[in-house]
Predict the 3D structure of the following.
Amino acid sequence: MKEKIAAVGLAHPFEVGYDNAENLLNTTAQTLRSLGVDCFNTGEVMHDLETVKKAADALKQTDADVLLICIATWSEDHHLLDLLSYVDKPVILRAFPAFDTGSLCCAHQIGAVFTDIGKKYEFVYGDPDDVNCAEKTKSIATAYALINCMGKVRVGTFGGRVQGMTEIAYDEFAIKKKLGARVIPLDLSELAARVDEISNETAEELLAEKSGALKPCNITSSHEGMLESIKFYKVMKDYVAEYGLEGLAVSCYTAYMGKVCLGYSLLAEEGVVGACEGDVTSAVTMKILYELSGKPVNNTDLLYLDDDKNTILFSHCGSSGFSIAGGEIELAPVRLAETGVCTKFLMKTGKVTAVNICGHGEQLRMAVMVGDAIPCGMEFPGNPMVVRFDKKVSDINEEIMANGIGHHWMIGYGDYAGQLKSFCRIQNIPYYKL
């Protein structure tokens, strides 16, 4: 996912600074491009109906996630109302420091008008070449790009949630309204039946096709387990193609433990996320983090706090993408059941964002933690990750309980707290930064 911005100027010919309006527009756009942002510059400075229509015609040719209005001087606010009648997209009002141009007071004026008509807007203030302003603009645009992206996502669920985890019961309406994704209910018994239809000979061919990815792994699972797991991978991939899915949630515990894990790991490298235990909301959360990071996401439980080291241990059975492994990958039977194939490995180190989304209706809520994944051992069989935080982990623990945050944490590489906070604000989702 890449954020897309379309920039247009606004100024009044009678005001000081009008002659510099185009330069402000160009410099602002160029600063964003220097950060890797896809910023389309219309080159238009709106000051009458004719220039508004020219700007609108240019904007209609783009698929921008958000409009950046570069306010060079005080201007008549109705020009923006006219623009939005032609191109109604999210808006960032961009004002520039100057005592004589009226840029800032024009932004305030427009903000009041937008508030009265119920039009949401964002605001950035600073010099056109200010990198911090460009970073803020990029972060806001990323949130809107994420909203657009998630509105097209389809997540398939096989078998619903597992028994005993009422917390992860999903709300299709809230997920669609707040997170954008559409849930596709699918039959777990049909998935299993399709698996049974695949011969061992075909499975052997499938394993051979995946030999490049699997050969470096230390395989301790049985060959029968490998054959069954690659069959599940094939059938899940068929469902992905058949239903246009970008995420899966299989009710694996306990009957299907270890059967879909290898398939999840392989699909993760193909851009398809997979959540454990039929947790549809976590699958959507994984997709959000995948779009932000461009990397596979680690599906975990929060397991243990170390107050002395100020760390938290996260892990699950083992179904993460190979590309985020920090060392040797073992294809091993799943813990407890001792069957099937899980992908056991230690995770890469680095900055990470852990996200939990739970709840229903207007109580759908997001909790976010940002920390540093540090070296660890196989402290829990699966994909363990030990994360060190600046905030006291005992305080984090108390906040989790105080706010009713669930037990499944999806972890992506990078710091996305700002983008997620903007996403939640725009979508009216309660947001907790732990």
Summary: The longest strand covers residues 365-374. The mean pLDDT is 97.
